[in-house]
Amino acid sequence: MARYHQYLLLTVFLAAAGKSADAQQTQATRYYPTHAEVLQNYKAADALDSALKKVPYVTNVRPNWHTGSNQFWYSKRIANNQTAYIVVEPEKGTKKTLFESGQLAAEVSKATGKPIKDGGFRIEDMFFSADKKQATFKTSNTWLKCDLASLQCSKTTDTVHQSYDADKPLQVRHYRWEGATADSVSPDKQWTAFVKGGNIVVKSSKSSTEIKLTTDGNLDKPYGELTWSPDSKHLVGYRIDPKKTKEVYYLLSSVPGTTRAVLKSHEYDQPGDEFTSYQQYIFNIADKSAIKTDAEKIDFFGAPQLHWHDGNSRYFTYEKADRGHQRFRVIEVDVTNGKTRNIIDEKTNTFIYEQRIYTYYSAKTHEIVWVTEKDGWRHIYLVDELTGKEKLVTKGDWVVRDVDSVDVKKRQIWFKGSGKNEGEDPYFMHYYRIGFDGKNLTDLTPEKGNHSVTFSPDREYYIDAYSEVNIAPKIVIKNTADLKTVMELEHTDLTGLLATGVKLPEVFVAKARDGKTDIWGVVYRPANMDPNKSYPVIENIYAGPQDSFVPKSFSVVNEMQSIAQLGFIVVQMDGMGTANRSKAFHDVCWHNLADAGFADRILWMQALAAKYPQVDISRIGVYGTSAGGQNSAGALLFHPEFYKAAVSACGCHDNRIDKQWWNEQWMGYPVGPHYEQQSNITNAGKLQGDLMLIVGEADNNVPPESTFRFADALIKSNKMFDLLVVPGMGHSDGGPYGRKKKRDFFVKHLLNAEPPARNTDELARN
């Protein structure tokens, strides 16, 4: 809690700094629109939204690879809401437009008997004749054959073709929440194992006699989760102590055809709830003996996946993440005596991000590829499974974001990383490969920008799409062997987009609370912004520690851009406590979700105001959904000196009410007093400023009662606020209706203006 108290003291300093920044807002007149101007802004915003949606630009290419070759086709949106279909042959370095949807609209309509409006049909699958003169494609569950010269099409049943391979890693990732797959038949097919009456029973393929391996199991505490050794001589199982998951409830108030609300419930673990536990046993099939391994019970997650040593059925390893997320182990078990040994044993004073633990087991070489933040940055280690010796493969003040695949034969690791390239946004994603020995690190994507890579099925080629939030996308195809560009697929021309009058977002960087670390964010301005006036600021907030959230790739059509058109400067930044930077940057969230990076966010906006007189930080609004709903409401509770209005949608306002796996990851276990101290519900009486709460009554992600309990606490504290409950809606920002309410709320409270009278359709009348 020391960090939390220091954080509260820091807010006093930030408040004083805020007053100083406010004093600088004398160069521009504060923008307060008349009602007529408000109506015009809404109309202009709608018009710009419509115009932006009509301007075609390509941000990525989804290739449809043909099995047996590196030929692929893709579609792209073009002018007049049409779609172009393009075929590429990398070996030849050629690409060709097959046809545009408008060219085939009449043919498709005639063949399917369905009207096609504005060429608006979508091809779901397509393959070509051997001579490449015909294309057979599927649209609306109908297969058509099209002559590519005449573009005449007809229905066909001749759909026998080679399927397309989706791009995917060489290895499939599994997570602990998925659980292990239990075996029933032994690898040598001589035995079948099953659970009967809570006990483990085996039966030989040569006999119908059932042999009990246990007798003390029962339906209340059964044995189960069985796995055979590769040599079929041993069976691994668990004595299970089940714990029933409690339920949460919600009401559907407006189900058609009913006159009563419908009560719904679903299982939902909350922080502190009990977990089912598993005690590991080894059963010898020859003598029917049982050994309890000397490892403690598994009381977090389910029975683990077992990794057997290659060619040796004596040893297996499994992974154990302890509840509380502060210890992770890879444990080796000797089936002959039940003795265990820790091959990997990582401990931390804060948290280990369980969902981002990566391990790959090379059985033949007895090596484990392991990704961890143990040195302060997320990096790859190579672990000797026999000795436990660890070797750092990647290193430096940058982050391995994910491992795509491990090539044991070439002894290479393919991965994504960020923060390595100096002079660019540390969140930009790049793709790399490196040797097991840490040598020959190769950047497959050296160009500046945020990259997204798609490999061909045989990995001879890869498509690289890269852009920045305000720099047009470029998409090329490269040769994996020499990294040379084979050809450019797409490079968006922004002329049409800029002709709409839209202002592209600005990337802005300011120092964090430590005075050293860079905080990165984006700024969206109104298309018709008057440089002589200052505008209220609205922050789009999501401070969930599971990731980073500021957009990095090019995309103009988004809610932030749209809201800005009403007369606001809309911003988003990733403060300390979010992921994808150093471990120290991330650790700020530990036992401290109420922090939400506010100290960094406030400094960032003050720096923005110091640079631009058009930024009025005396009028700050904030909105967010889910964890962002918790954050936006928390802004008014913990920082009312800075934030003046907030819209909070489906917020997890008390981390004891929200889902167990997410909250214990950051707030820790057991549930301590810090949970209550940082609860929005506990702190409801501190509310200042204007607050709107939005919740869907059918939310099964964050229980609706989280918002209702917060509302109850606000009412009991005599606090005024708005509450929007959307009947039948799940986990959402309120949908189209809620988003209208949000805009109107900020117009009223930050611009001191009346939004359109929607019930009389004022926008249409003026």
Task: Note the main attributes of this structure.
single chain; alpha+beta; 9-stranded mixed sheet; 5-stranded antiparallel sheet; 13 helices; disordered N terminus
Describe the structure.
This protein is of the alpha+beta class and about 775 residues long. It has 13 helices and 43 strands. The strands form 10 sheets. Strands 1, 36, 37, 38, 39, 40, 41, 42 and 43 form a 9-stranded mixed β-sheet that branches. A hairpin with a 5-residue loop joins strand 34 and strand 35 (about 485-490). Helix 1 (about 1-25) runs parallel beside helix 7 (about 600-610). It is globular and about 90 Å long. InterPro entries: AB_hydrolase_fold, Peptidase_S9_cat, Peptidase_S9B_N, Serine_Prot_S9B/DPPIV.
